[in-house]
Amino acid sequence: YRYHGWGLKADKKKAVEWFEKSANCGCAAGMAFFAYDLYRGDGIEKDKELGITWGKKALLSLLRCRSKRG
User: Fold this and answer.
1) CA 54 from centroid of its chain's CA atoms
2) Per-residue pLDDT tens for 11-43?
3) Which residues does residue 5 pair with via DSSP β-bridges, in sequence order?
4) In the Cβ-directed half-sphere of 66, how many Cα atoms lie within 13 Å?
5) With 0-12 CB in 10 A as exposed, 13-18 as middle and 19+ as buried, what is 15?
6) How many Cβ atoms sit within 10 Å of the Cβ of residue 30?
7) Is the pTM value of this prediction over 0.70?
8) Closest-CA residue to 22 (of 32, 33, 30, 12)
């Protein structure tokens, strides 16, 4: 839903819904995309503070994954 293609029409609000769902499930990529959309107000009401919070969560999630690799 993020970009037009693969037979789907771009729907930024729907994309944000899915990013939020994946973020809440612990997906670092979902957290990062959700943070970006919140910070910029892309498909959702702009909330820079919450965007930064989700961005930090995404970064911490990635760092935890990398530290588990060794």
Assistant:
1) 8
2) 899 999 999 999 999 999 999 999 999 999 999
3) 8
4) 7
5) buried
6) 20
7) yes
8) 30
Tokens read off for 36: 């970006």
The three-point CA angle 26-31-13 to 5° equals 120
**Confidence category of residue 64, pLDDT binned at 50, 70, 90:** confident
**Residue whose structure tokens are 């107000």:** 41
Residue 26 tokens read as: 């612990």
Q: With helix as H, strand as E and coil as C, how does the chain read?
A: CCCCECCECCCHHHHHHHHHHHHHCCCHHHHHHHHHHHHHCCCCCCCHHHHHHHHHHHHHHHHHHHHHHC
| CA 19 to chain centroid | 5
